[in-house]
Specification:
Elements (H helix, E strand, L loop, with lengths): L4 H17 L19 H25 L2 H14 L3 H4 L23 H18 L4 H10 L11 H4 L5 E6 L8 E6 L27 H4 L17 H19 L2 H4 L5 E4 L2 E4 H7 L3 E3 L4 E3 L7 H12 L10 H13 L14 H11 L9 H8 L10 E4 L4 E3 L19 E4 L5 H9 L28 H5 L6 H18 L9 H13 L6 E2 L2 E2 L4 H7 L7 H5 L8
Antiparallel strand pairs: 1-2, 1-9, 2-7, 3-4, 5-6, 7-8, 10-11
Helix pairs in contact: 1-2, 5-6, 5-16, 9-12, 9-14, 12-13, 16-18, 18-19
Length: about 550
């Protein structure tokens, strides 16, 4: 009834032959038996390719015998369904009819499920670009692609920093896949490939901080190489909140004197640095892998952690000042940098300042300002220079670049740059803004294919990224790389290229085939995961190849 099914059957036959007959013994030997003996490898090589060949010829027979009117209807439906209004209403260079600009053309039909998903992606991005009006902004970006010019201006095409990806051995285990870190700032001067020698604990006197937290948002003409200014409406309130929190805790007696006190570790009491480096937050794989989440942080990183927990939306809505106050006090005290069950991390005076002055939760006043902060809380991870998953959502990875344990010539878990996607800092932030659920989904470790060495830890369906029910460092990173390709598919201003024509060609590739799946005729090959990641992006002009996010067995 539908000839689209037949090429998939052909693909299944060929892939079954490849999977079964490239093994040293048949994958089904021992389960399928002929008499008392399992089929030989020679019989396997004859049987399965024959089935694959028969299934491959099925579409040809169907096309010969099918009525011409049905094929015509199918062709018209395909041509109408594969065209998106973004491709029609974008740049005037893409004209459907000669002599008429594209923006004046009537958009063709779009599949309902794809249009709904695209609108959801754009609304996630618009929360950080234009909070409070994200539905209107998303609709405008969907219907009028040229509106991207307002956010991704010409200066970001020529004078913008590039994104990158860093890694180090996960949990200090070399036999596990590498722990991945998203980099929005690839500046070699700020994060040199060869770090300076440091043999002592860094007391955070080097003033290394995130660009978007120190950016002057009131200066509308200053340089912005790291792509912070377009997010002014969400970044500036978060910047003010972090400054308020960091100032308050810097004067707190308990927090300020933590390095001079001893903390319980087992049956002993040790200095804070020793406790933090050895504190075990969880044990996995039958207690063979100990997850240590504590990293010595400064006031700014502790403020960011506090914001992450306090602004996260729970299952129940906070309707009263009393509910919001209890919620904030509980989240402010929770931290991986402080022992559970120990005395409070801050004095009561500091707690009152944080709740009332910083988060704007005061008796007799409205919760409007706190609700506004909570609404843009999902934009916090895209303000970082480097972001990573460490147990509880996305955190600021810049703390690791301050510690000789991770970032020094003789580091135990040495950080190194392993990926260099072809995208600007601004587009990298827009891509992660598309996936807010990655920061709130529960952390999973085992059993999970994401930790399996090889291809299985890199391939994820886009639905698994957009509607994540679980997260983990590698899944988050490679979902972000997929989002980079899809951002290029939404606007050519996020595509690589030396000129407008090259960016437009990359835009077309990333819109129609963002994963670079091999195409036979008009059909994309449906492959198992093991073959998929090896074949995706093999073409010279495929989207992953152009974006430098193709398969790499070394990561």
């Amino acid at each position: 009834r539908d000839i689209r099914v037949l090429p998939r059957l052909a693909n299944a036959g060929w892939c079954l032959a490849m999977a079964a007959c490239t093994q040293r013994r048949p994958v089904w030997a021992g389960t399928l038996r002929v008499g008392r003996r399992a089929p030989s490898l020679h019989a396997c090589r004859l049987l399965f390719p024959g089935i694959g060949l028969a299934l491959a010829l099925a579409p040809v027979a169907a096309c010969v015998t099918a009525p011409a009117s049905r094929l015509v209807r199918r062709q018209n439906a395909t041509s109408a369904g594969d065209t998106h209004p973004e491709m029609l209403q974008g740049s005037s260079r893409m004209s459907v009819e000669k002599g008429a600009p594209v923006k004046d053309q009537v958009p063709l039909s779009v599949p309902a499920d794809k249009q709904k998903r695209t609108r959801e992606e754009l609304e996630n991005v618009a929360v950080c670009l234009n909070p409070g009006k994200e539905s209107i902004e998303a609709k405008y970006l969907l219907d009028h692609k040229g509106n991207w010019d307002k956010w991704v201006k010409d200066e970001y095409l020529t004078h913008s920093d590039r994104v990158d990806g860093w890694a180090h051995p996960a949990f200090g285990k070399k036999n596990l896949p590498q722990h991945m870190i998203i980099g929005f700032v690839g500046d070699n001067k700020k994060f040199p490939l060869i770090p300076a020698s440091r043999t002592h604990f860094d007391s955070f006197g080097d003033h290394l901080d995130n660009a978007c937290f120190t950016f002057n948002y009131n200066d509308v003409r200053g340089p912005d190489p790291y792509g912070c200014r377009p997010f002014k409406k969400s970044f500036q309130p978060l910047q003010e909140l972090r400054n308020c929190i960091a100032t308050a805790i810097s004067h707190d007696r308990i927090w300020k004197n933590r390095y001079a006190e001893n903390f319980p570790l087992g049956k002993k009491k040790v200095p804070y640095i020793t406790w933090c480096n050895n504190a075990v937050s969880a044990e996995k794989l039958w207690k063979k892998v100990k997850i240590r989440l504590c990293v010595p942080v400064d006031n700014e990183r502790r403020a960011e952690e506090m914001m992450k927990f306090a602004l996260a939306k729970g299952k129940k809505d906070l309707k009263t000042v009393e509910q919001a106050g209890l919620h904030l006090r509980k989240k402010i005290e929770f931290s991986v940098t402080w022992p559970r069950g120990r005395s409070k991390p801050f004095t009561p005076e500091t707690m009152d300042t944080l709740v009332g002055k910083c988060f704007h939760v005061t008796k007799g006043k409205s919760l409007e300002k706190f609700k506004a902060l909570q609404h843009i809380g999902q934009c916090l991870p895209i303000m970082y220079d480097k972001a990573e998953i460490m147990g509880y959502g996305l955190i600021d990875a810049i703390a690791k670049f301050k510690l000789p344990k991770y970032y020094s010539p003789n580091a135990e878990a040495k950080l190194k740059r392993v990926r260099t996607p072809a995208a600007s800092s601004l587009c990298g932030r827009l891509a992660l803004a598309m996936l807010p659920r990655l920061s709130t989904a529960p952390y999973t470790f085992f059993p999970d294919r994401n930790l399996r060495p090889g291809e299985g830890s890199k391939y994820h369906r886009w639905e698994e990224c957009l509607h994540a029910k679980e997260q983990q460092c590698r899944k988050t990173y490679f979902c972000w790389e997929q989002a980079l390709s899809r951002m290029c598919g939404k606007t050519e201003r996020c595509c690589p290229g030396k000129n407008a024509e090259e960016r437009l060609a990359a835009h077309q590739q990333c819109y129609f085939n963002p994963k670079g799946v091999p195409v036979v005729g008009k059909f994309k090959l449906q492959l198992p995961n093991g073959f998929r990641t090896r074949l995706e992006g093999m073409g010279a002009n495929s989207c992953p190849k152009l974006m430098h996010t193709e398969h790499d067995a070394s990561v």
